[in-house]
Design brief:
Length: 616
């Protein structure tokens, strides 16, 4: 073997040793190092999280329970657990000693497993040997505070930072803020008179209960309880003047108010919950009069906003194609206030039969819109929704005004009391958020619940819950937790495709309406011809009738061809858009990388030439 061959072989061995050494060192020294290339920086600690953990005054301990042996055949779960541990370690590192993290392996029949069960952690059966997997977190403080994440689902990894920040925030406060809740809707579950079973509380009710101490207020109460930090009114119907006067006093004294009113609350069961017809015949609108009038806030409690520009697709009957419902709308980021902390980072909030808010000309209030309709919207009577069969009928009835209606708003500025005899006539600045819809609180408009080995997992498809908690947090003055929560975005709608579909559907609707009109006119002509004949044998058609039928058949074939052409145009537009995206992904990005590599190589070559020239 020649000397050069020995050198070549030694170089290869040396490179192999260096590679293995660097791999082992990187696994230990670079643990937790990440480059976050996501658009919303989902895997980088937000400033709100950093502020929360640095503000910890008394030590907080987070115990991360993970079954090492039971997950040996589950590489995806083990990788997820590693990411969870890295996130916890990063939070502990940034907390300046205020946050301690411990990893606990609850082996079968061990004291650690008994602790996990006592804290309420969920055990998931895995494998055929009867092994159970624990993947949860228990948080404690020095004051016997306890917060538990029973099971961390890998499907909710995008929400993990918020869940941990919420846990730390709750443990860092000795007392939770008290939120007074007055509602005319069955948010807390209760008893279902029709099925004879107990209903589960709404998800938003559970979330409010986790974050704050709820003080329930009866609609028959005469006053707001003392010590309330914020007041939430949901569908305030049939309130006594005495209670309204005290709500007025609460707001004028600087109390924070979040009010949800509605032209037609779908969850309102009516005066007799045991009667299914009660909700169909009873009034289901709510307002906050006479407070609104005293503030100079205009709200028509029996008219809703129909919005074609943000209408969502719904299925009225199983097996039928979906149609866009102008009364059920998804307010997108472009129609939410980007500068307000409650809506600045939200993607979509779904509403149904929402009303419109505006100010009187002589109102001294300032109104800051939080959510708005598109310009393809108009107002319709809420009664039209009671027995609506085809949502597309609303599109034909409404007239788009080009106005962007305010669906939710922040009110600030001086107001006078609606009850001057009880509360005086002095002007006071208020801080109030009003939402012209209550249906956004219902589960079916924003969240799905799925069971995973006995654990209920929540899968939000809209940001309704985030908006509500954000609003309460903001009224209480906590902006850090809002900034963390707003990062949990799971819906990224393809806006351009939706616009193409919406335009095509409008063309389809116009063609379908023309078809129905021509069909009705043809049937009328057939009836007229039949009555004019006066024959007893109705099965025999006259030449005029046969010609009319032939003409109708040709018209129907022609219109069907037009419908197919519209659908082909829609598919062609979407396919063209998809082709452009594929071209960018397949050719443009590699081309940019190649150009960058060539430029970098050229720069290095120029530097080498300069060095060689300087050396000579």
């Amino acid at each position: 073997m020649t000397k050069n061959n020995w050198y070549s072989g030694g170089a290869l061995v040396l490179l192999a040793v260096l590679f293995l050494s660097l791999t082992m060192l990187s696994a230990n020294l670079l643990t937790g190092a990440r480059v976050d290339l996501t658009e919303n920086r989902l895997y980088t600690l937000s400033s709100g999280t950093v502020n929360l953990i640095r503000a910890i005054e008394e030590p907080i301990t987070l115990d991360f329970y993970f079954s090492e042996d039971a997950s040996s055949d589950l590489p995806q779960v083990r990788n997820f657990a590693r990411r969870v541990e890295e996130l916890l370690s990063e939070m502990a590192r940034r907390s300046n000693g205020g946050l301690q993290v411990r990893r606990i392996d609850p082996r079968p029949f061990s004291e650690e497993e008994d602790q996990a069960a006592r804290f309420g952690l969920e055990s998931v059966p895995v494998g055929r040997a009867g092994d159970t997997l624990y993947l949860g977190i228990v948080g404690t403080n020095l004051l016997d505070g306890l917060e538990v994440l029973p099971f961390i689902s890998p499907a909710r990894e995008a929400f993990l930072e918020y869940e941990l920040a919420r846990m730390i925030f709750a443990l860092s406060r000795p007392d939770r803020p008290r939120v007074g809740l007055l509602t005319g809707l069955p948010m807390d579950g209760g008893f279902d008179m029709q099925t004879g079973q107990r209903r589960e509380p709404w998800v938003i009710y559970d979330q409010i209960d986790q974050m704050f101490e709820i003080e329930r207020i009866s609609r028959s109460a005469s006053a707001v309880p003392d010590g309330i930090d914020a007041l939430v009114l949901v569908h305030p119907r049939e309130l006594d003047d005495e209670l309204l006067a005290d709500i007025d006093r609460f707001v004028l004294d600087g109390g924070r108010l979040l009010a949800f009113v509605d032209p037609l609350a779908e969850a309102d069961t009516g005066p007799d919950p045991s009667d299914p017809m009660s909700a169909l015949t009873a009034d289901r609108y709510s307002s906050l009069e006479p407070l609104f009038s005293a503030w100079g806030l205009k709200f028509e409690p029996q008219r809703f906003v129909a919005d074609l520009g943000q209408a969502l697709e719904v299925s009225m009957q199983q097996g039928r194609t979906t149609v866009r419902h102008p009364a059920i709308i998804g307010v997108t980021r472009g129609r939410m206030n980007p500068d307000d902390v409650t809506t600045g980072e939200l993607d979509t909030v779904n509403l149904a039969s929402a009303g419109a808010l505006s100010l009187d000309e002589d109102s001294r209030l300032s109104i800051e819109p939080l959510m708005m309709s598109s310009s393809q919207a108009g107002m319709l009577d809420a009664e039209r929704l009671r027995f609506l069969g085809d949502p597309s009928e609303l599109a034909a009835e409404m007239a788009a005004t080009g106005e962007n209606y305010i669906l939710a708003a922040r009110l600030s500025g001086p107001v006078s009391s609606a009850f001057p005899e009880q509360n005086g006539d002095q002007s006071t600045d208020i801080n109030v958020i009003v939402v012209a819809d209550t249906d956004l609180l219902s589960d079916r408009f924003w969240v799905q619940q799925q069971r995973f080995f006995g654990t209920v997992l929540l899968e939000p498809f809209a940001s309704n819950g985030d908006f509500v908690i954000n609003a309460i947090d903001n009224l209480l003055g906590n902006a850090d937790l809002i900034s963390v929560r707003s990062r949990g975005v799971s819906s990224r709608p393809f806006v351009l495709v939706d616009e193409l579909r919406r335009e095509a559907e409008q063309r389809l609707r116009a063609t379908e309406q023309r078809l129905e009109a021509e069909l009705a006119e043809t049937e009328r002509r057939l009836n007229d011809l039949q009555q004019a004949r006066g024959d007893t044998d109705l099965t025999v058609l006259s030449p005029e009738q046969e010609a009319e039928i032939d003409r109708f058949m040709e018209q129907r074939l022609d219109i069907r061809r037009q419908l197919r052409q519209v659908r082909r145009d829609l598919d062609r537009d979407i396919e063209a858009l998809g082709t452009r995206v594929k071209m960018i992904n397949i050719f443009l990005m590699p081309l940019l990388v190649t150009v960058f590599a060539l430029w970098l190589g050229w720069c290095r070559r120029q530097q080498m030439q300069k060095r060689q020239g300087a050396a000579t």
